[in-house]
Amino acid sequence: RFKLPGGSKSVHRAARPASREQPLRLQASVAWVDEECDDVGLTSADLESSASLEPLVDEWMRLVLSGHERRPGQMDMILEDLGPMPPAGRVTERALWVCALINPLPGLGVAYEIRPRVLMADSARQRLEIAGQGLEDSIAHLNGSRPLGRG
Q: What is the pTM of this model?
């Protein structure tokens, strides 16, 4: 799923067979998400869940900065690329932001890969749940209470 203001909601291109004259082309199907429409119908509980990500992000950042960066200044670069956390009322943007934070490229190795799941989610509520669980799992790994791979 990609964000493209004013773009169509879905794109599908057929791949051409590879030949000696033409390079191989890949086929992709893309679903556009309109965050404003996607966030309609959220309950006050959803907005509270979205707001509750902020203290979790603060805790996660504290833990990562206590010795889990793979190189000095890595989190500074990640945050510069991401910009500020979107407001709680923009649930889809906030969930995607959290996913990008805990699963950056290059990776930190402190969280399960949740980007594919959040991109495949059908609603803002599902994206929020996936991002929140991913953040909680990563915090548990970082603080030693539940290391990754040890359910």
A: 0.78
